[in-house]
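HUMAN: Now follow token order:
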Amino acid sequence: MKNRIRRVLSLALAVFLIFALTACNSNNAGTPESQTPPTSPDSSNPDSPPQPPDASSMKVGISMPTKSLQRWNQDGENMQKAFVAAGFEVDLQYGGENEVPVQISQIENMISGGCNVLVIAAIEGDSLTEVLARAKEKDIAVIAYDRLIMGTDAVSYYATFDNWQVGVFQGEYIKDQLNLDSAAGPFNIEFFTGDPGDNNINFFFDGAMSVLQPYLDSGKLVCPSGQTEKLTVATISWSAENAQTRMENIISSNNYGPNGTPLHAVMCSNDSTAQGASNALVNAGYTAENFPIVTGQDCDIVSMKNMLQGFQSMSVFKDTRTLANQVVAMVTAILSGSQPPINDTTTYDNGTGVIPSFLCEPVVGTLQNYKELLIDSGYYTQDQLES
């Protein structure tokens, strides 16, 4: 990192980083091999009081994929608030309606506009190679945010949730609700995952299938549409409209309905695909009394309202406030010339090598615990879910 921004860490920074480390967990957090503590850049004078970087002179570029999904609005706003509170200047941009050329142009402007660090949730994981090569030339650190950026050695770190565990949670929920280990079956299931350009679908979908595939192999679970391959069940842009259209076609082709072929579960990798599938099921005549199990992720307001009405069964909560604080800790360490907190050095290979990562812990959200997770924690108000 540029010599002009290398400073020793302050005692306050050390406390902040320790807090950030304890706020997030992954399944391998806390092991000496996978977790690297921040180190002081001035080992020659360990008794000197550390000084923080001058955040007011530092500019952070934040690139989010779209404003059309609640998830990314919250992520962008939470990060902006956290960075501003820490004293940084922030350039927050959204890539139109998941428009790759728009995102590339915005990142180019961030590079030429003097950003010291880039935090990027890529629209397509392999579309940023050229623009990030220019960032590397200028010695600008890049943190991939929740979506791993593929095919470039310009990515310095990755901050995300344990996305494999997200899929496992969804698969286990279906297994438990259908009592697959004891019930006779067979049970009918359909599958929806996200955009094929998003590397996360490999973790979401494969995590869920690690639980459900044995039951498909044994015949306890059956997919009447025959659509079980990852790319076949992918949903362009994670669009609720695209998911709804595909679900409507599946319903029609397989005679699903309250008085037709029974449908017991729909495995959806996130809330927007779950909302599309649920819309199609409601239009086909399903009610709360006979609604299939529908999984999701992100605890979006629309999906939480659907859960309260009986039109979605669960969602996986990823507290973006925690992830935002973690990213601030990582950026502060980078600009101080220190090693950012990481807890995974083996899992996330972007094609040029394993990217040092920090994984935060996802949590299952249901009607039984949503008040504790979302209302009591201040993530939402009850009025937001009831309006």
